[in-house]
Write a structure and sequence with these properties.
The complex is a heterodimer of chains A (about 525) and B (about 325). Chain A has about 525 residues and is an alpha/beta fold. Helices cover about 35% and strands about 25% of the residues of chain A. A 6-stranded mixed sheet of chain A has the order 6-7-8-3-9-10, with helices on both faces. In chain A, strands 16-19-20-13-21-22 form a 6-stranded mixed sheet, with helices on both faces. Helix content of chain B is about 75%, strand content about 0%. In chain B, a hairpin with a 2-residue loop joins strand 1 and strand 2. The chains are: A alpha/beta (about 525), B mainly alpha (about 325).
């Protein structure tokens, strides 16, 4: 894809060029002498493990943070960016990893935030504002979002689309997408890529950050890998070699993408048996069984009830009907507290707000859900608490200075381990994973897969909802595919492939006809390298 | 106009209407020009104080000095107005400026000193009350009759107080909220980091929000001066927490980002009318506080009951 237009463009100055960028936060070096450039009409993918400095670079490129060192050139001219609006005026707009929408403002108000059209008295011209947003939506092919809806009412995927529209509202010459597709379903990613292709033709420079290799493979013209805050290599997409890239990202060779699958469970009796679970418009007639040591996947297109099923099992959904048995005993799931006592553990969607108390220490987080077992005379027994935290840290090999370190300072992977340590401490038996590797780098993912395997080997039951098909293929004994908030199909053993899962998700009768994406068996690809 | 935003005001509106009906039932005489005017006058200071509080709460902050600024501006106005109309008007403008400056100082410390708003405004509460006491150690002062009448009189059933409030809302509140600053105030309270990466200066937005709060508190102080025809630096105390109550009852979220003027204004009149209703129904003054608090809790609980209908606990908590 590094075609003649890109070659021609290389003669002129790049749309965006950063050289020698340095940035540190409170002693931690985020970027160190980093170089990066993006030409006009090029999709330049930025890769790197979590903490490699990608997001910091993005923040510097679009004026959110000033660099400590280095220069920034736009179309050959050196600039200093003071704030995102100035950057947007100079033609750089970004879609951030963490959504920047204000939930109580409307979609239109969010898109035009801080650059609203105003009249002679400084009043915002609402009609003009709305008209511009409608035009914009038409241009980029969004037709299902009402500009007058409050942004907080939209699904995560739609919010991400709005976020992209917001960046495009500045008509940027350089568009930066930091994890811009992490919440999008396949269909939406498809549409976004069409849009990116159109922008590329118009000469827009596009910086694209993603952890989904399939996407990267599809869209990249050039790739740059960051590690430890600096550029460790830039290659043309035609020369792309995935295992080489992964190697660059990690700085070491990874043998295989997935660990060995946990052995097939030997138990006959299910640990968790759900029959005819209904929850109004959220879930219909859900029946499923999971045995000890079994890893069951939950698949389907975005928003088919997978998340709600996990939340329902964790007591977060009210007025359920149907029967839930744990170890054969009927269990009432009225609240998370009851679910925890029944042995459920939820590794939630949003680690930052639902999984951890960020400013508190490792110790406090690990024992949080087990405090009732660690009290003596109504007070928390400090020594038992410390022992529990120590045990959790050792068991999951959590790397931290001490158990008093605030979890906010840990890496994403270690934070995720803290969440799991918390549930191991409660004595949880049924682990519900809510898309745990979203926006997580390759190395951390790998560690995570091993953890899931270990949980299964330790006799836990695992229900894994994931938006990444390769994960379900690589880890699960069975995969339940959901469609329209009911379980549409159950895949088992050899019949679990990305193609069959996708076909079942789409409700395609013939499983072999789904060729939306070339089948990639990550184990095989890994083994070959 | 996004109608959905006004849903949060419904509780206070319905509450106010029901309370008025109850009041008329207990004491039909309030349906006279005098009764209506008196009721309106009683609530308008709190309504203005609620606007002062709301603009700050929208950014996700809180202003504990609202009552102190009301008292300070009340003391300034009643002390210096005198009987010469030209001087009186100059003093009124000066009073507005003083309140606005007080809000500006709050904003400077909160926005650029990066100190928690609750602490900053607790400190300035004492400072502003202290300045007020220096200006006017004892309650008193002189307030010209024409001025008192201009704000507290009525055309038949239409109290000037409501006209004063309406004019302020239309000439100050609405333009503020329709400006980029107003949009920024909402955005900052709704998603602080999001606002920042969208290019909004969070500090500058906070500064001007607190300044606007000072302006509305000064308006409340000026109205209070006309209503009581005297000055008292410590009279504002009750307005601080009542303004917070009005803002919450009026549907705004204390975490910021949500709230329109309609709700808190209705809630302010509800709270002030409630006292009159309790009085009119012959409740012993000893029980008034108890009942006032009880009614508030019940009304707020009832208003939020619908939230429990949602299926997700997550929604219950995030609303």
């Amino acid at each position: 894809m590094a075609d003649s237009s890109a070659a021609a463009a290389s003669n002129e100055a790049p749309a965006l060029e950063a050289s020698g960028i340095g940035k540190h936060f409170a002693g931690v070096i985020a970027l160190d002498d980093a170089d990066f450039s993006c030409r006009r009409g090029e999709v330049h993918v930025l890769l790197g493990a979590n903490g490699a400095g990608k997001s910091t670079l993005v923040k510097i490129l679009c004026g959110v943070q000033p660099p400590d060192a280095g220069t920034l050139r736009l179309n050959g001219e050196t600039v200093r960016l003071h704030n995102p609006i100035q950057a947007a005026e100079l033609g750089v707009a970004a879609v951030f990893q963490e959504l920047s929408l204000a939930p109580h403002l409307t979609v239109a108000e969010n898109i035009m935030l801080a650059h609203e059209p105003t009249g002679p008295f400084g009043q915002i011209r609402s009609r003009e504002l709305r008209r511009r947003v409608i035009d914009l939506f038409e241009q980029i092919g969004i037709d299902h979002i009402n500009p007058n809806t409050l942004a907080g009412r939209l699904t995560l995927a739609d919010q991400q689309l709005v976020e992209i529209a917001k960046a495009l509202s500045h008509d940027p010459k350089t568009l930066i997408l930091d994890e811009g597709t992490s919440a999008l379903g396949r269909e939406e990613v498809r549409r976004l890529f069409d849009l990116i292709a159109r922008l590329r033709e118009r000469g827009t420079a596009i910086v694209f950050i993603s952890h989904r290799m399939a996407e990267v493979r599809e869209i990249a013209d050039r790739l740059t890998v960051f590690r430890n805050g600096t550029n460790v290599g830039t290659v043309d997409a035609v020369d792309m070699d995935e295992s080489h890239l992964v190697e660059l990202m990690l700085g070491e060779r990874i043998e295989q993408s997935f660990p060995d699958r946990a052995p097939m469970p030997t138990d006959k009796e299910p640990l968790l048996a759900v029959s005819d679970l209904n929850a109004g418009e959220l879930l219909h007639d859900i029946s499923l069984e999971i045995r000890r040591g079994e890893v069951v996947g939950l698949a389907g297109l975005e928003g088919q009830g997978q998340g709600d099923l996990l939340l329902a099992l964790f007591g977060m959904v009210r007025r359920l009907s149907g029967e839930v048995r744990v170890n054969g005993k009927p269990t009432h799931l009225g609240s998370p507290w009851k679910a925890i006592k029944a042995g459920f553990a939820l590794i939630p969607e949003d680690r930052k707000t639902q999984g951890l108390l960020q400013p508190l220490s490792l110790r406090e987080n690990i024992v949080l859900a087990s405090l009732h077992r660690l009290t003596r005379g109504g007070l928390i027994d400090r020594s038992r608490e410390r022992r529990a935290a120590e045990q959790g840290m050792k068991r999951l090999e959590i790397k931290a200075e001490s158990m008093e370190t605030p979890v906010v300072t840990l890496s994403g992977g270690n934070q995720q381990k803290v969440v799991i340590a918390k549930w191991l401490e409660t004595g949880g038996d049924i682990f519900l994973f809510y898309d745990p590797t979203r926006g997580v780098d390759v190395g951390t993912k790998r560690a995570f897969y091993e953890l899931i395997g270990e949980l299964a080997r330790a006799g836990k039951a695992v229900l894994l909802y994931s938006t990444e098909l390769s994960e379900l293929v690589g880890l699960c004994h069975r995969v339940l595919v959901m469609n329209d908030r009911r379980i549409a199909e159950i895949l088992e053993g050899e019949s679990i492939t990305e193609n069959t899962i996708l076909a079942a998700s789409l409700g395609v009768g013939d499983r072999h006809s789904a060729n939306t994406e070339p089948a990639t068996d990550h184990r095989k690809a890994g083994a070959a390298s | 106009m996004i109608i959905e935003r006004y849903y949060s005001s419904l509780t206070a509106m319905i509450g106010l209407i029901l309370l008025v009906i109850l009041f008329v039932y207990i004491q039909p005489l309030i349906l006279s020009p005098f009764g209506v005017t008196m009721s309106a006058n009683q609530g308008t200071t709190l309504a203005l104080a609620a606007l002062a509080q709301l603009v700050v709460v929208l950014t996700g902050g809180v202003d504990l000095s609202v009552g102190a600024m009301v008292g300070l501006t009340n003391a300034i106005a009643a002390t210096y107005m005198g009987s010469d109309p030209a001087i009186s008007i100059a003093v009124l403008i000066g009073t507005l400026a003083a309140g606005t400056l007080a809000g500006f100082l709050n904003g400077m410390v909160v926005a650029y000193g990066r100190i928690q708003p609750i602490i900053v405004t607790l400190a300035t509460l004492y400072i502003y009350t202290g300045i007020g006491l220096v200006i006017r150690p004892q309650p008193g002062g002189f307030v010209p009759n024409w001025f008192a009448n201009a704000l507290t009189g009525s055309w038949g059933y239409l109290p000037y107080a409501l006209v004063f409030l309406l004019v302020l809302v239309l000439l100050a509140w609405v333009p503020l909220m329709r400006s980029r600053l107003g949009r920024a105030i909402n955005a900052v309270g709704d998603n602080r980091n999001g606002a920042r990466v969208s290019g909004i200066s969070v500090a500058r937005t906070e500064l001007w929000a607190y300044t606007a709060g000072g302006f509305f508190a000064a308006c409340a102080g000026i109205f209070l001066t006309a209503q009581t025809t005297s000055g008292d630096a410590t009279i504002g105390t009750s307005y601080t927490l009542n303004s917070v109550a009005a803002v919450v009852f009026g549907g705004a979220m204390l975490s910021g980002g949500r709230g329109v003027a309609l709700g808190p204004i209705c809630a302010a009149y509800f709270l002030s009318l409630l006292i009159s209703v309790l009085f009119a129904s012959g409740v012993s003054p000893f029980y008034q506080n108890l009942l006032q608090g009880g009614v508030l809790v019940i009304v707020l609980a009832a208003a939020n009951a619908w939230r429990l209908r949602t299926r997700h606990w997550l929604n219950v908590m995030s609303n």
